[in-house]
């Protein structure tokens, strides 16, 4: 019952309503104190799966790799990455509430409170890995992804700026929603 109520009040609101940028930040600010408890209730495996995929691309010298965790939230991915030996992790998120929780983990070198609005490539050196994770439904249905983001990804690939390395689908979130991980390597 508790699970359903949290799902109703936050996730469904986030997914189902056309919230503007400010409203989304407010929602995450409000959610931040209980975000991790809710993730545990839902057996959310997104961060461990993302970390597993990223680690495949960095078999050695992990401690020298610079990571940028976009949409860092409360720092759950940084926790997974740090366990694997990553030491230089920056985080970026527009929600100050989420970042306040992330800061408590003492795992980030820098935390930036802002929306990510740039082309991902501008933050990566040649050879760098960009790993994108989300639920399948927005990837397939949201006009922002379908009409803007993925056409940009395809265009960058056609221009030889990056190359798709893999697409992995896994199950492990609320109501059996599939999630997708897409990995690009910058050229
Ligand atoms: C569902 S939470 C996930 C947090 C964390 N990655 C995890 O899996 O535990 C999504 C986070 O992405 C942030 N976010 C949403 N749009 C963003 C954007 N354009 N740039 C950076 N962060 C964004 C939100 O503020 C929120 O903290």
List all distinct small molecules, including ions and cofactors, that are bound in this structure. S-adenosylmethionine
Radius of gyration: 16 Å
Helix amount, in percent? Answer: 40-55%
Low-confidence runs of at least 5 consecutive residues: none
User: Overall 3D geometry?
Assistant: globular
In total, the number of strands is 6
Strand order of the largest sheet: 1-2-3
The main sheet comes to: 3 strands, parallel
- Report the mean per-residue pLDDT as an integer: 89
Please, how many helices?
8
N→C terminal distance: 49 Å
In terms of structural class, how would the helical and strand content be classed? alpha/beta
Organism: Mytilus edulis
Domain Methyltransferase: 68-113
Protein name: Methyltransferase domain-containing protein
InterPro entries: Methyltransf_25, SAM-dependent_MTases_sf
Task: Characterise the protein shown here.
The protein has 187 residues and is of the alpha/beta class. The chain has helices at residues 2-16, 21-31, 35-41, 46-56, 76-84, 96-103, 136-141, 143-158; strands at 66-70, 88-92, 110-112, 129-135, 162-171, 178-186. A three-stranded parallel β-sheet has the order 1-2-3, with helices on one face. Helix 4 runs parallel beside helix 5. The longest helix is centred in the last third of the chain and has 16 residues, at 143-158. It starts with a helix and ends with a strand. The mean pLDDT is 89. S-adenosylmethionine binds at residues 28, 46-47, 70-73, 76-77, 92-95, 98, 115-116.
């Amino acid at each position: 019952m508790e699970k359903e109520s949290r799902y109703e009040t936050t996730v469904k609101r986030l997914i189902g309503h056309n919230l503007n940028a400010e409203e989304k930040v407010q929602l995450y600010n409000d959610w931040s104190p209980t975000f991790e408890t809710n993730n545990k209730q839902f057996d959310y495996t997104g961060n461990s799966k993302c970390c597993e995929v990223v680690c495949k691309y960095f078999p050695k010298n992990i401690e020298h790799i610079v990571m940028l965790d976009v949409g860092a939230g409360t720092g759950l991915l940084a926790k997974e990455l740090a366990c694997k030996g990553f030491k230089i992790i920056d985080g970026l998120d527009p929600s100050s509430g989420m970042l306040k929780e992330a800061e408590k983990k003492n795992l980030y070198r820098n935390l930036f409170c802002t929306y990510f609005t740039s082309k991902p490539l501008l933050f990566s050196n040649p050879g760098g890995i960009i790993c994108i994770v989300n639920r399948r439904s927005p990837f397939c249905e949201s006009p922002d992804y379908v009409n803007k983001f993925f056409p940009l990804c395809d265009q960058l690939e056609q221009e030889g700026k990056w190359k798709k390395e893999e697409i992995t689908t896994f199950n492990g979130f609320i109501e059996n929603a599939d999630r997708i991980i897409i990995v690009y390597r910058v050229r």
